[in-house]
Write a structure and sequence with these properties.
- The chain is mainly α.
- The chain has one domain: Four Helix Bundle (Hemerythrin (Met), subunit A) (Up-down Bundle), CATH 1.20.120.680.
- It is built from 6 helices and no strands.
- Helix 4 packs antiparallel against helix 5 and helix 5 runs antiparallel to helix 6.
Length: 230
């Protein structure tokens, strides 16, 4: 049975106003994640890792947008904020969709299969449920890739004090993509529509290749920026 929890306020522990996010909802989500219930699971958790990445990019942009030192980059900061907030909202919606999709798999698996007709009905329902259960983390992987692209763009804001936050955002986005990929592939093991599996696999591998390039570039850039002064 699914626990209907409010969306956890994950991300930087700060609102633009400086207030702290309530930790109770994070604690509640983790209680549900640690339970023996089918949902939330890894796919759901991956979306919240992505939400953290988006929140960090928004934080970097907001702090830099208030600093006159980076006035020339304020338009870029505003663009980063808009896009980061869009992706943060997408990540939270993806969490709900991922949990719902897996619940459909659980429900289809529990359908009766004593007669041939029941077996046929169950097979159709299960295949459709698995299709959605793979499609949702695939979409989450796309959003994670968009976050990596956004983290790379955020490197254009030369605020060295926040370089580590951009680095963390990139690491979270990369982790969210890798975790989402696991959840796509686990569903592929049970799907019988080989054309759909092949199409999704090709798309996922494209995301992974681009993400690996972006991640390596961001990591090397951040590492260079954080070197101690001679």
């Amino acid at each position: 049975m699914r626990m209907h929890l409010p969306p956890p306020r994950l991300g930087a522990a700060r609102e633009p106003s400086g207030e702290r996010c309530p930790v109770e909802t994070i604690s509640g989500y983790l209680e549900a994640l640690a339970s023996d219930r089918p949902t939330p699971g890894g796919g759901s958790a991956a979306t919240l890792v992505a939400a953290n990445a988006a929140a960090l990019i928004a934080m970097v942009a907001r702090i830099s947008a208030r600093n006159p030192k980076y006035a020339a980059h304020h338009p870029l900061c505003e663009q980063l904020i808009t896009e980061a907030e869009r992706l943060r909202a997408e990540a939270l919606r993806a969490r709900e969709r991922d949990e719902a999709a897996f619940e459909r798999v659980v429900a289809a698996s529990a359908m009766p299969k004593e007669t041939h007709a029941q077996q046929t009905t169950r097979h159709v329902a299960l295949e459709l449920a698995l299709h959605h259960a793979a499609a949702e983390p695939l979409l989450a992987a796309q959003h994670a890739l968009e976050l990596l692209r956004l983290a790379q763009t955020a490197l254009d804001v030369p605020n060295l004090n926040l370089a580590s936050d951009i680095g963390c955002a990139a690491e979270f986005a990369a982790a969210a993509l890798a975790a989402s990929a696991y959840n796509v592939r686990v569903n592929h093991r049970f799907m019988r529509d080989h054309d759909v599996v092949a199409t999704q696999r090709t798309t996922l591998e494209h995301y992974e290749r681009e993400a690996a390039t972006l991640h390596a570039h961001i990591r090397s850039t951040i590492t260079a920026r954080l070197k101690p002064k001679p």
